[in-house]
Design a protein that fits this description.
- There is one protein chain.
- The radius of gyration is 21 Å and the shape is globular.
- The chain is α/β, with parallel strands linked by helices and 383 residues long.
- It is built from 12 helices and 13 strands.
- Strands 2-8-7-6-5-3-4 form a 7-stranded mixed beta sheet, with helices on both faces.
- The protein has 2 domains: 3-11 and 256-378, Aspartate Aminotransferase, domain 1 (Alpha-Beta Complex), CATH 3.90.1150.10; 15-254, Aspartate Aminotransferase, domain 2 (3-Layer(aba) Sandwich).
- The structure holds pyridoxal-5'-phosphate.
- Pyridoxal-5'-phosphate binds next to α3.
Amino acid sequence: MKVYLDNAATTKIDSRVLAKMKSIYATHYGNASSIHYLGQENYLLIKACKEKIAQVFKGQADNIVFTSSATEANNFIIKGVMRANKDRGNHLIVSAIEHPCVMNSARELAAEGFKVDYAPVDSDGRVKLAELEKMILPETVLVSIMAVNNEIGVVQDLAKISEIVHRNGAWFHTDAVQAVPYLNLDIKKLGIDFMSLSAHKFYGPLGSGLAFINPAIKINPLIVGGGQENGLRAGTYNVPGIVGLTEALVLSYKERGTYIKKVKVLRDYLWQKIKRSIPEVYLNGSLKDRTPNNLNVRFRRIEGEAILMDLSLKGICVSTGSACSAQNLKVSGTLTAIGLDPSDMNSNIRFSLGKYNNKKEIDYTVKVLAGAVKRLRQFSPIV
Ligand SMILES: Cc1ncc(COP(=O)(O)O)c(C=O)c1O
C-alpha cells in the first residue's frame, strides 16, 4: 500500500488543477507582456486570477505580486520592506519558529547592519504576546510571524498580533504557507499588511507563489528586470502556474468545509491509535491551536530517521522534525524553541495529512509503525 502523509512538505496536484494548466500550456502560450492578442489574452487572464484570489482573502487584486515560491515571497517582503524603509528604522522582529527562508532573510539583513530580534514562543509554539509587545521599539519597521508552523502546526492569533504590532507603530507580515485552507485569512479583519503563499501546499503546482503587499508601504523589488508586476517582480509571467495557483486556491476554500472535517477525524484517529499501540510516545505541541492536518510525535529512544526509512520501505511517506529540508539534518529550530530536551530532538516524526487520505491508510500506517518502533527499540543503546 502507498500512503502519503507528507502534505506539509508538498501536496499531490488536484487533477482539476492539472487539467486546467494543461489546456493553458497547450493554447495560452503568449508572453503576457506582449501586446499582440495572445499576450493580451494572458495579461487579462492574470488580472482575472488576481481578482479571484483577492476575493478569497477580501483583499485588493492590485496588491498581489506573483512569485516563484513562498521562499521568494518571504525574501521579497522581508528584505524589500526593511531596505526600502530605512528612514523609519532598522529593527526587524521575527518569531523564533519561522521557516528557514524567513530566518535566513533576517540573518542576511543582520549582516547588512539591521537589528533583528526573535520573538519567543511557549511550550506549544504560541508567540508570547506580552514579550512580543515589549520587543517592539520606535525603530521597529516590520514584525514577521508565521500563521501556522510547518513542523508542529501551531496556529498563531494573527488578529491579536497585528493589533499589538500596529498599536506600536510597526507593520505586520505573515507567512501563511501552511494556513490554506485551514484558516480563514480575511486580511483586512486580521490586519495583515503582507502575506506569503505557495500553491504546492494546497494541491496546486510547484514553482508558483504569491506575495500580498500593502501599497501604502514602500517595498523594494528582489528581482529586477523587465518591469513586470509594476516593477516589483521581474520575469516572464508563469501563466500556467498562476492559473494553477488560482484554481487550487479557489477549490481549497470552496471545499474546505468537508475536507477540514475529514482530515481532522483522520488525524485524531491516527493519534489515538498511535497512543494505544505504541508505548512512550509524546505529542510535540498541543492539539489545541493546531491545524487539523498535523501530528508531530516523539518516539523515545529511537532516531526519527530510522523510523522514516522503515516506513518508506513499506510505502509510507512521512517527515522527520524539519519540514521541507529533510536532507539538511540540522537540529529543528521549532523544537528547540518549544523547549524540547536535546536528547529528544532526533526522535520525531511529522505526519501531515491531506484530503486524499483515508482510514485504511491510517490503519496500515499504525500497524507498520508499531512494528518498526518495536524492532528499532530492540537495538536502541538508550534506555
Ligand atoms: C511555513 C513555510 N514557509 C515557507 C515555505 C517555503 O515555500 P516554497 O516551497 O514555496 O518555497 C514552506 C515550505 O515548506 C513553509 O512550510
